[in-house]
Structure to design on (1151 residues):
């Protein structure tokens, strides 16, 4: 074990200054907010006077319609591409925020596990997780401030309009930020102090508060952006009705909330996993190695748990976008953005494959794993096969000779794989087999002692077989031989089947292996270094994918700031090509990773000490 | 004799590669596009790598020949050959890739682009999101009348459409060979079965020139049928397309 | 340090692969540029959109809500389904010179000639409800065009729970404006004429028509038109001249863009005048 106390002790000295700096920054950000309100109010007042003089506004106190902008309304600042700046900064802010919001969620859960099991390892791991996230916290605030500045600078009218509608929630946001900081610092710096009995309860309460505040912050920020996609609480001209709740509780708010909440957890897990992987690679002794292996495993476990339901949350979001506006839905899934989902499929496939690979490599920790490794190649075949189906595009890129040979752009065999029923089937199968990998991993070090083990296994095999057959049947029969209503509807029984298989076999497994005995002690740290790179790939793919999906979420608004209400008249209103977007996302991702590395490095530096001989007076 | 692991991996990879080609190009008679096969093989390689390297011992066995090749002093001869061949092969590959060819650049086309929300058809703005086939309801209400409509549609089809789209609606009409892109095959589950009737109406009425940019309107040879057919004829021919192929138009309502 | 660099290189290569695939592995389709702002095309408008347009005008350009609000400075307009007919039936209505025979006409009249009939209690102070404080919506600072007036009527009928009786003008090129300024490219809007002779002169009516004195004979003689035709016919004849062609005359002689140029108040003056010619 690392000597946390020692490191933390030194860390504490340094971090006094750090907290001061972050505190100041938050005050700065908040002040910017405040000043803006005052300023914006003044602007608004001035505006309405002018308009009243011209006889163009409504009653006093009523809201103005969304402004109709011209290109000249977007300040040109030193020839900088404003959209690019806002895009990159917003993306960086989002990555950090997702990480910072997610970590307390599972830190809290791990702390509770530690308290229940009285296994100090969990408590130490939770502490280390939060330590990783706390340095990122101030960066989140800085980037948030930067985002605000760049919005005001490059999109002043949009910001003015949004802030007239969300004035209240923006105020609460600033206040909550204070509360979040206070609770976070108490939670982190009070960790060693609030130990044992009643104090642990106090500490856990702080953790719960931290999560409640953090989630509320996210919900508020989500409301602003979903308002831009599915405006509510305003009329067709953008005149605000004055009902803040209606504007917040717009059509896409909850679908985005759910999707982001789940994705944040998976993302936080993957970043912590990368941290553990790096620590593992640079570990100086076996003990450290074991610790970070264990940490990496847990982080990966969290990431996978959140990753499995994520396609369903995404599916729900897409369905709701369709329900909100069919045109937005078609823009999303067809036309230009159709290819984006091929990239997304490649990325998600990468996530699934590397997560599985990590699990397989991890089976080497147990001496009993040999019993199961023979199945791995079959899992791999199914996974890769499903994956290939998943990223087969609907529109194939064909050379002229291929076009001739096929007699048309339609491929009789690959064509049907390009549409939704095939993809839904593939993703469900992938999830089931990833779960199977996990099941094998769980079993690898256990020997069942119950007498009905064989029967249990047969039931389990039957469950899996029935589930897979059902998914395939639903996918092929309802996907291709019935009309559309059932095509879309078939995805729901598929998901239900997947869930039944997962839950059913988990329950069964816990009975079979409830009173099992171990093959031997788990050899934490006995894992090839390659596996750590799987963790890195997981983090990188997650980061990049979030950036890409951020592009499409905002891209389906097309040339609107607020869909159908406030038009983007700037020179940058066009929708960029996928390659362009991918390049922006890549640069932003590299910036983000550099910042993360800096954050981790600074945490390490604070723990090291140089003793220059003969420098100080004796 | 046990095959060395490295060779096993290579064999699996090559087996899958040629498997794809044999199955698609020869057994099924539908070539697998090169661009797609490249992507497939990239991930097959990833899968092979994963299966062959998750275990530490197996991995050692896998890389042992490679390691030996690089490090073993006894293998100097073969090392020199391999180390010369690899750069040469890469060089040839690059040369081959950069070679200008006579093949026309690949035209990227979205076959089913997102429709606009409204379109001007027969001089009127039509809302494509809410447009419905006026005769579709007859299917339930008056099957006889409906059958007559389908028959009318069939006549329209035979007079106008079958030259390209084929008398079996499979996109293989007498003129199809001369066209690129080739006419759509309506029998395919990926075409009209995925679309709403209003979409077909838009495509038929405005033809190739009515396509948005991403669908490359300049290469489509579909005529603007609103100049030749009446509105009723288009709706009837749509009925026929679905009736003959046995597909159902996409709709968002339960029946 | 070597490990660190390896990890960094691994991450950069991974991102490079993702970016490379997105750039070269899939087709780059350039999305269509944002559409240029469309002129309002009345031909493509549904009644719903037309009503929405009316609402926007009512709340925006028309500044109607300054008075017609819950504070009661002016009559409430969301109850016109019951009130409008009551006003028409009010004996004071004809006394004070109201001419409308149905609700639609009444609403138009209220907008362009607000003083024709003033709802009891809402008149200018000291005029005993003879004069309305409301400006003529078709001129002055509001200057609704004919189309805009109809849009506002559509909104009022819709909002008040009445059946919408107006039709979307399709033969008139709409001059529906943006939020703030007037006729944009046409420069300053002209003052509305109040004398009938000025209107005749401005639109050169007497080049073709005989009205008061012997003049052109390219168009029907109008010197006693009021005896033959009613106001509705005349209104249509002015706004859609090709709808009915008088015997002996050809279609397409009379300009059909008068509706774009004439103010609603002028139209009323013209109609008043013509229908009195007997």
């Amino acid at each position: 074990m690392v000597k946390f106390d020692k490191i933390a002790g030194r860390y504490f000295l340094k971090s006094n200054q750090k907290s001061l700096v972050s505190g100041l920054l938050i005050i700065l950000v908040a002040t910017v907010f405040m000043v803006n309100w005052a300023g914006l109010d003044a602007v608004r007042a001035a505006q309405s006077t002018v308009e009243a003089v011209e006889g163009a506004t409504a009653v006093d106190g009523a809201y103005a319609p969304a402004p109709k902008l011209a290109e000249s309304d977007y300040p040109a600042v030193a020839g900088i591409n404003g959209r690019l700046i806002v895009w990159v900064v917003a993306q960086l802010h989002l990555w950090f925020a997702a990480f910072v919001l997610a970590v307390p969620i599972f830190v809290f859960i791990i702390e509770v596990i530690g308290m229940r099991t009285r296994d100090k390892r969990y408590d130490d791991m939770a502490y280390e997780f939060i330590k990783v996230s706390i340095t990122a916290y101030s960066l989140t605030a800085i980037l948030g401030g930067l985002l605000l500045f760049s919005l005001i600078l490059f999109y002043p009218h949009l910001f003015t309009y949004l802030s007239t509608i969300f004035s209240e929630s923006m105020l609460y946001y600033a206040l909550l930020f204070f509360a979040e900081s206070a609770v976070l610092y108490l939670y982190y710096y009070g960790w060693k102090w609030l130990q044992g009995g009643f104090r642990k309860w106090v500490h856990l309460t702080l953790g719960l508060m931290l999560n409640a505040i953090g989630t509320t912050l996210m919900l508020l920020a989500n409301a602003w952006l979903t308002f831009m996609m599915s405006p509510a609480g305003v009329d067709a001209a953008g005149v605000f009705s004055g009902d803040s709740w209606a504007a917040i509780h717009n059509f896409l708010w909850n679908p985005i909330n759910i999707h982001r909440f789940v994705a944040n957890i998976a993302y936080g897990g993957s970043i912590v996993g990368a941290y553990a992987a790096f620590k593992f690679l640079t570990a100086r002794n076996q003990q450290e190695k074991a610790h970070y292996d264990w940490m990496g495993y847990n982080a990966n476990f969290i990431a996978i748990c959140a990753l499995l339901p994520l396609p369903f949350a995404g599916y729900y979001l897409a369905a709701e976008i369709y329900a909100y506006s069919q045109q937005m839905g078609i823009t999303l899934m067809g036309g230009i953005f159709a290819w984006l989902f091929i990239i997304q499929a490649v990325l998600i496939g990468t996530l699934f494959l590397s997560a599985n690979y990590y699990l397989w490599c991890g089976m080497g920790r147990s001496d009993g794993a040999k019993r199961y490794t023979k199945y791995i190649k079959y899992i791999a075949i199914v996974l890769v096969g499903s994956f290939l189906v998943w990223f087969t595009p609907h529109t194939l890129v064909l050379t002229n000779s291929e076009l001739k040979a096929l007699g048309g752009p339609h491929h009789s065999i690959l064509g049907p794989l390009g549409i939704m029923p095939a993809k839904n089937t593939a993703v469900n199968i992938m999830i089931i087999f990833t779960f199977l990998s996990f099941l094998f991993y769980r079993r690898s070090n256990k020997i069942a002692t119950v007498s009905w083990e064989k029967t249990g296994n047969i039931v389990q095999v039957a469950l899996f077989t029935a589930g897979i057959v059902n998914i395939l049947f639903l996918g092929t029969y309802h996907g291709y031989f019935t009309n559309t209503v059932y095509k879309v509807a078939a995805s729901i029984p598929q998901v239900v089947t997947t869930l039944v298989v997962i839950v059913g076999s988990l329950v069964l497994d816990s009975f079979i292996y409830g009173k099992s005995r171990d093959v031997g002690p788990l050899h934490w740290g006995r894992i090839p270094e390659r596996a750590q790179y799987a963790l890195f790939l997981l983090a990188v793919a997650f980061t990049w994918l979030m950036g890409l999906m951020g592009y499409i979420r905002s891209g389906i608004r097309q040339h609107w700031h607020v869909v159908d209400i406030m038009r983007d008249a700037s020179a940058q209103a066009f929708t960029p090509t996928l390659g362009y977007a991918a390049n922006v996302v890549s640069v932003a991702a590299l910036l983000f990773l550099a910042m993360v590395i800096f954050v981790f490095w600074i945490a390490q530096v604070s723990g090291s000490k140089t003793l220059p001989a003969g420098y100080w007076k004796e | 004799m046990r095959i060395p692991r490295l060779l096993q991996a290579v064999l699996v990879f090559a087996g899958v590669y040629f498997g794809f080609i044999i199955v698609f190009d020869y057994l099924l008679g539908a070539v697998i596009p090169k661009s797609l096969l490249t992507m497939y093989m990239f991930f097959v390689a990833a899968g092979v790598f994963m299966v062959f390297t998750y275990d530490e011992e197996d991995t050692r066995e896998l890389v042992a020949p490679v390691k030996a090749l690089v490090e073993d002093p006894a293998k100097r001869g073969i090392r020199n050959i391999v180390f010369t061949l690899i750069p040469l092969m890469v060089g040839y590959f690059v040369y081959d890739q950069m070679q200008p060819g006579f093949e026309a650049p690949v035209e990227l086309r979205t076959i089913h682009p997102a429709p606009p929300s409204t379109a001007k058809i027969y001089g009127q703005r039509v809302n494509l999101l809410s447009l419905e086939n006026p005769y579709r309801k007859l299917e339930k209400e008056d099957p006889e009348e409906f059958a007559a409509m389908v028959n009318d549609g069939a006549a329209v089809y035979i007079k106008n459409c079958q030259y390209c789209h084929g008398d079996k609606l499979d996109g293989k009409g007498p003129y199809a060979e001369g066209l690129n892109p080739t006419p759509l095959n309506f029998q395919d589950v990926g075409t009209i079965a995925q679309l709403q009737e209003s979409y077909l109406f838009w495509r038929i009425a405005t033809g190739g020139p009515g396509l948005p940019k991403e669908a490359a309107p300049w290469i489509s040879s579909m005529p603007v049928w609103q100049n030749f057919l009446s509105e009723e004829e288009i709706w009837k021919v749509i009925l026929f397309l679905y009736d003959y192929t046995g597909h159902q138009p996409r709709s968002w309502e339960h029946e | 340090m070597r490990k660190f660099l390896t990890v960094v290189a691994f991450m950069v290569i991974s991102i490079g692969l993702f970016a490379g695939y997105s750039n070269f592995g899939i087709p780059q389709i350039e999305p269509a540029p944002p559409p240029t702002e469309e002129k309002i095309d009345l031909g493509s408008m549904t009644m719903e959109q037309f009503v929405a347009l009316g609402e926007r005008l009512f709340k925006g350009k028309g500044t109607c809500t300054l008075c017609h609000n819950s504070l009661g400075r002016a009559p409430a307009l969301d109850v016109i389904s019951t009130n409008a007919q009551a006003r028409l039936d009010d004996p004071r209505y004809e006394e004070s010179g109201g001419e409308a025979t149905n609700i639609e006409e009444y609403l138009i009249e209220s907008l362009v000639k607000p003083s024709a009939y003033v709802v009891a209690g809402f008149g200018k102070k000291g005029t005993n409800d003879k004069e309305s404080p409301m400006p003529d919506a078709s001129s002055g600072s509001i200057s609704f065009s004919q189309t805009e007036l109809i849009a506002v009527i559509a909104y009022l009928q819709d909002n008040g729970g009445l059946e919408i009786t107006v039709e979307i003008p399709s033969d008139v090129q709409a001059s529906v404006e943006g939020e703030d300024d007037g006729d944009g490219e046409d420069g300053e809007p002209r003052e509305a004429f109040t004398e009938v002779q000025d209107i005749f002169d401005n639109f050169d009516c007497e080049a073709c028509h005989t009205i008061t004195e012997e003049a052109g004979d390219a168009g029907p003689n109008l010197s006693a038109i009021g005896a033959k035709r009613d106001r509705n016919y005349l209104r249509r004849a002015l706004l859609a001249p090709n709808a009915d062609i008088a015997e002996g005359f050809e279609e397409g002689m009379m300009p059909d863009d008068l509706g774009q140029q004439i103010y609603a108040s002028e139209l009323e003056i013209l109609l008043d005048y013509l229908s009195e010619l007997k």
